[in-house]
Amino acid sequence: MKIFTFQQALPKQVVASVMALMMVIALSLSSNPALARSGPIEGFADLAEKLLPSVVNISTTQVIEGRSGPQIPQLPPGSPFEEFFKEFFDRNQSEGGRPRKATSLGSGFFFGDDGYVITNNHVIAEADEIAVILQDDTRLKAELVGRDAKSDLAVLKVKSDRKIKGVRFGKSSKSRVGDWVVAIGNPFGLGGTVTAGIISARGRDINAGPYDDFIQTDASINRGNSGGPMFNLDGEVIGINTAIYSPSGGSVGIGFAIPSSAAEPVIRQLIDTGEVKRGWLGVHIQQVTDEIAESLGLDKPEGALVADVIKDGPAEASKIMKGDVILSFDGKRVHEMRSLPKIVADTVVGKPVEVVVWRGGSRKALSVTVGVLDEATEMAAKSSKSKKGLTRDLEDLGMTLMALTDASREHYKLSKEAKGVLISKVAADGTAAEKGVRAGDLIVEVSQEEVSTPTEVVNKVNEAKKEDRKTVLFLVEGQNGLRFVALRLGKS
């Protein structure tokens, strides 16, 4: 193979220009150390040496009702034969054997100097016994202080004669995509393992829970790393490693960590009270689409659209109404629908806050006293939502409308309390069908005004046409609850 040098491949004038440019770059880098350092040139050894003693392995034991039959052989954690043998031996088990103990491994870290250990809830869930294993293999019995399934966080506590130094949280909100991070944990039960990478993305929603806001990293994270810390280069915890995306079960460079900004308030509540109390507003919300924004006169799609207000909730008491778009809550801007539940949940219960809504083409400020979200209120809200069904509406946009009668209520299994205009037929190629409107749905409002007859719906649509509006906003009730639908005019 022939190798070309600059001198052989390029004219001397070009070579001279390139060399001059390289000299300029070298001088710039030497005068600006921040530019010259794309990463920690000295490596991560000093940082790892400092942090490893604060990171622990977590071993849990669960008693499982025994079954007779052949037992699965002991295999190394993460063995490719593990799933094969598990499936084979499960098929050959029978009930009636002795109870046995099943163990699992995860990671965690000391927070503060009082023996508190932070990990994921799924690491210790259903465990009968929990042990914390230090870097020198010292095994300490751990007690569960508190756990929170929604955020997948748990706090343990151990007692030890030695002084154990914990780590502190940093501000994940200040971290940027491309920043270096170091992950330490217990992958496949191997013990303290250090990996490094960068922040690949922020604000990831992976449908793990109602408050998803994960940091994505390409630092190697595997089974057993759950609950371990993600550090910045200052040795501060900016994330708690929780999940990976992997078709194979091993790291493919896509890992997710709970940001410290979301984890720290939960952890402090668990330490103080053993439980987490979250703020509650009492509304059902939906995304503001381009069509809905245009219908409401918003400059751009933002905020959270109130599809329904829960009876006797904080929102009802503060006069928040269906059709309001919540633009800010307690001084925090609501960029999109999924931002609001997290903002509300992080707000102190009982705190009066200002809520800015978009109503009738202008902003309106309201005062709301934040309620507490508990299982009872959450279940009541879900029950209320399921009873009300899903809303969709229109008239000459591919729909046939019908007044509510006893016969139609019975045919579509609607309650006697149901109000609005019934959609009896939806054209498959119409605008309403494109937006998911279905036969049996009820049109409750048109242009944010209640309707009770098909004629009222037609009149509202005609008024919108006379005003040269491009869309009409409907409030539709169906199987999945109330929902606003913006239907574009001029298409049938």
Which keywords apply here?
single chain, about 500 residues, alpha+beta, Thrombin, subunit H, Pdz3 Domain, 4 domains, 6-stranded antiparallel beta barrel, 6-stranded antiparallel β-barrel, disordered N terminus
Summary of the model, kept short:
The chain is of the alpha+beta class. It has 14 helices and 28 strands. The strands form six sheets. A six-stranded antiparallel β-barrel has the order 1-4-5-8-7-6. A six-stranded antiparallel beta barrel has the order 9-10-11-14-13-12. Strands 16, 17, 18, 19, 20 and 21 form a six-stranded antiparallel β-sheet that branches.
Walk me through this protein's architecture.
The protein has 492 residues and is an alpha+beta fold. The protein folds into 4 domains: 6-36; 44-275, Thrombin, subunit H, CATH 2.40.10.120; 279-384, Roll (Pdz3 Domain); 389-488, Pdz3 Domain. The protein contains 14 helices and 28 strands. A 6-stranded antiparallel barrel has the order 1-4-5-8-7-6. Strand 20 (352-359) and strand 21 (362-369) form a beta hairpin. The protein is elongated, with a radius of gyration of 29 Å.
CATH class placement of the largest domain: Mainly Beta
Query: What is the makeup of the main sheet?
Result: 6 strands, antiparallel, barrel
Strand ordering within the main sheet: 1-4-5-8-7-6
Oligomerization status of the protein chains: single chain
**Structural class, please?**
alpha+beta
Q: Can you tell me the residue ranges where pLDDT is under 50 for at least 5 consecutive residues?
A: 1-11, 33-37, 73-85, 383-393
Total number of distinct structural domains: 4
**End-to-end distance:** 68 Å
**Global geometry:** elongated
